[in-house]
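Exercise: predict the structure of this protein bound to pyridoxal-5'-phosphate.
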Amino acid sequence: MPRNYDIAELKRLDVKHHLPAQQDFKLIEDMGGSRIVTHAEGCYIHDGDGNRILDGMAGLWCVNVGYGREELVEVAAEQMRELPFYNTFFKTVAPPTVLLAQKIAGLTGGKLQHVFFNASGSEANDTVFRMVRQYWKLKGEPKRKVFISRWNAYHGSTVAGVSLGGMKFMHEQGDLPIPGVEHVRQPYWFGEGFGQDPVQFGKECAASIEERILAVGPENVAAFIGEPAQGAGGVIIPPPGYWQEVEAICRKYGILLVADEVICGFGRTGEWFGHQTLGFTPDLVPMAKGLSSGYLPISAVAVSSEIVEVMKTGGDFVHGFTYSGHPVCAAVALRNIEIIEREGLVARTRDDTGPYLAKALARLNDHPLVGETRSLGLLGAVEIVAEPGTNKRWGGTEGNAGPLVRDRCIENGLMVRGIRDTIVMCPPLTISHSQIDDLAAIIRKSLDEAWPALKAI
Ligand SMILES: *Cc1c(COP(=O)(O)O)cnc(C)c1O
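Solution:
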């Protein structure tokens, strides 16, 4: 341990004073406090109890370049000395912020030439929400207010983020969604299209968007928003052709297309952005997480020139955050992108580690608890089933298996997430072949160990 922390005391204080994110406060109390993560290097995190854990989640889908990047520390320190903060409200901007905007515009390419900065993925989606409605108002179509999203989508935890998202259990808290958000079915073949031809299933999911547009009235619909592949919903990778259908529907009705790239961006799927991997062209692209590999909080929205031209007719766009374009975060993000470029991590994910992960997961298909494995670049999932060859769940209901297997994985030295009956992973893009082998071996061992508990449900 780099510092001599009093772990027992930290756990006690954690219970006493600290409220964790997306958690049951009582559960943490009953556990005697959270796991104290003290330090990390490469693809491993270390906790206060002396465990070294392979980080199959890249933190929270974000540490794309891995831990321990000294040059990110240095660039942050340099920028803090020179200019620790300045805002973009006063017709002012810091140098790294401008350069990062240029860099992102180069990576998104095409018509996405403008970038609005925020501090989190949720804020990026709030920016999308407000900008899209303002755009339609300025275009003389003020009735276009409705956003169409998917059930089980994740777009963040602010009021707009939860509303745009499709997590029913999140809607239940805080009386959400706010009006003006419509949800349609998700392209989750294993869960909802099992037994059907996947391409046909994808077409039907896309068609549900058109049906909803017609039900709401195309003149009222502002935008469709979706993650290229759903992350927090359980690494749901749409069938081939789905996004092409969605894009065609959006174009047919003149509706803006928003690709939430907060997870899929920055090499995760084997291209810089998920929409490039899946072959469609959005009008707005919120991004965060891998933008700075989580070293500092920053997010961005790439916006098409057409939208920006319309926004220019409206005077002040009265939106923005204190930390929009934060110079230190921007400097770190810029250097993070340079690392991804210099080490060829995007092509490596596409040509080497992504396919290697797919093969390692495919070898788990012979395990009787595994219903399906799937991956896109270095985003992967294992579906846990009660009967081989089916999508039947343990206990006959959804959601029992994931947490049980996840807990075994963590115990065995691998951090993964259990989402309903799915184990999901999103390791650093720097992960090696032997670390991918370890990851798959730990999942197999953990499935074996969880079996008795699954049978007892
Ligand atoms: C994480 C995530 C968000 C929210 O980002 P925060 O930084 O947690 O606010 C939004 N969209 C997607 C797709 C995400 O995965």
